[in-house]
Design brief:
heterodimer, A: alpha+beta, 4-stranded mixed β-sheet, 16 helices, globular, B: mainly alpha, 14 helices
Amino acid sequence: MMRSRLWLTVACLLATIGSAVAQKQGGTLRVTHRDNPPSASLLEEATISTLMPFMAVFNNLVVFDPASRENRLDRVVPDLATSWALTDDDRTLTFQLRDGIKWHDGKPFTSADVKCTFDIASGKVNGKLRKNPHKTWWFNIKDVATDGDTKVVFHLTDPQPSIMALLAAGFSPIYPCHVAAAEMRTHPIGTGPFKFVEFKQNESIKLVRNADYWKPGRPYLDAIEYTIIPNRATMLLAMATGKFDLTFTTDLTPELTKSLQEQAPATQCVLQPTGTQGNLLVNRERPPFDNEQIRKAMVLSIDRKAFSDILSRGIFEVGGVNMPPPEGHWGWSKEFMESVPGYGADVEKSRDEGRRIMKSLGYGPDNMLPLKVSTRNIPDYRDASVILIDHLKSVYIQGELEPLDSSVWYARLARKDFSVGMNVQGMSVDDPDAIFFENFLCGSERNYTSYCNADLEKKFHEQSQMKDIDARRKLVWEIDKTLQIDAARPVVFHAKAGTCWWPRVHGVNIAMNTIYNHWRFEDVWLDQ
Amino acid sequence: MLDYILRRLALMVLTLFGVSVAIFLLLRIVPGNIADILFDSAGLIDPAEKQQIIKDLGLDLPLVEQYARWIGGLAHGDLGFSYVSEKPVLDEILPRIPITARLAGLALLFAVCTGVPFGVISAVRQNTILDYVLRIFSLLFLSMPSFWLGLLVLMAFVNWFGILPIYDKAPATWGALALMLGVPAATVGLRSSALIMRLTRSSMLEVLRQDYVRTARSKGLSEGAVTFVHALRNAVLPVITTIGIETAFLFGGLIVTETVFNIPGVARFLVEAIRWRDYPMVQNLVMFIAIIVVMVNLIVDIAYMFVDPRIRLRA
């Protein structure tokens, strides 16, 4: 046993030394991009279309260990902060910052930049952001204070161990105080390994190496060029012929991933959770869906395995609001999931129960409840809605598809102008704090179904303050179970998709439980 | 003749005014605006933030005032700012115009250079195997949707030659440049080529039966002189009309071709701008396209006068 461990250690050491020697400086990494990012401002966007190309321009206070394949609280490592400390009451978090760091425009980075970033991000100060989708992440920040140029202190309302996970997320970059928010949308300035060069709408994005980067010897690449290719077939052919080195993250459905590997067997691909989940939205304020029993019957009609089989040949995962294991850290175990109503293996039994409920309310095969299933008119949403309509028939509900233009979809959700909707939603951090507060807090902007449970809300705060991971997980599972039983936003599937690259690309480390937080590219190099 | 051109120019101004009103109103009738779309990517709508964006962009102003601002700016060469990129519209459009113009020009050239000769050959060799083959192919190209044909062409190049002739900012060789320009142009031009070929054929067949063609033959002129000097010159009038109309249709085809071949031209950009409800961008791009189409048709009308003396005399 001892001997095998020794050999393993030696092998790891040799591999590390070998790869260190082999790393080459230079080259331009050519990456495909799926669509035109709405802007270059990470604080103002919630889409991976912005995050993947622009994360490399910035640094955070802390990051998830780029070498680790898991985003976990115990794998948060320093970035612009060299160290951090919590006071005994866990309410004051002090960061020691790196000295001598410069923004890409040559101005010095100081603690004032950190303060101003979080004042804007938390919505305490109007920083002229056009929108602030992650404001809810910072609900617990009472105040951010500076202590000299290299120390910054976060005062928290309550203890919140997972704030470190939120600070490590790609959407939590440090912005320069001296640059206007409007400029950050078109010409971002950061301290990161790559400098912004140009963003041509619907065409390309170009970054070049930051020669003054504070990490010695990094980055390896001279430049990164993203080419926007909205047509998937063209993108696939371009990748197969080697015109590009790396695909946009999770841009390939499981089927397309397989197709690319058949066309170009040398490519390396990873199928991973996209962080997006399909969920059912039921407007609990609109009759007859204000009746808890009808909502319950709808939930019991769902055959989650059928969704996975039809949409992805069984690759999509089933779970609650948190990403299911083995990739996710907070999702239910298989055994626990069996105990959640509607998640059992016997779908017919659940549907029998659903039919019984509907019959007791006066509905039946000859008197079906008519409803409209509203959804965005894009394939991911539409396909899932069609399956949902089919499932609802099993409990005497006759659905009609109402496809809506993207421009109308969120406006309708905000006005609560829908009865039933099929939604696909992304989660950028695998942490319950990022999910519960954003989506299920009474009155939260993203709480589309207006679900409000004061008792559960107390539990949101309780889990957020827990240090013991196992105990917290237990509570999180129970909260998740209540959310599903209450049909707050029943989760139907957790999507998976593929990212591929050619063997000449080294150092791409895809995390299992996020597509969002690993795009600094400072360790990526090209063998050519 | 000058009168005729001036009359056409006056009509052109009226047409452009109509287009400007139509596009302005149509864009506002379509549900959703830039504020809705911006929040789409964030997955939520904050009513206060949305209202601020609407106010900042002047979308809360009365429609007449918005229209007057746009047309007033246009008259002074100020096309406004893109809602998405927040850059001047002109800066966004200008670099894309040469890309699309080159593609459209090449496609039209391809359509004329293949359509007219094949149409003539088909007419002269009426009811021969060559005629049948040309007619079948023309029907095939007319029936095939551009996006499907484009993808088929791309796949064929990848499978047979291992290369992909999509857009490249800096093609490595002259061959790559020729492929990058030629293949999409041919793809988009095939439909027009088929149409021109069929039109040339039917027009030629009609002319070839005319008395003056028989007279020319009886005078002992060579078959080439009869076909190209006497027949084609008279048969080409409806073809010229079609070329004018096809220029407008070409933009429709270019949208698809630019998407499939990933060409960052005006046509693809217009679709994206519509999706984003980027009013200044869409309005000005549509006006630009309208000007081109109207100008081409004016050129076609003037060309009539040179080709057909009867029109010149009537004018």
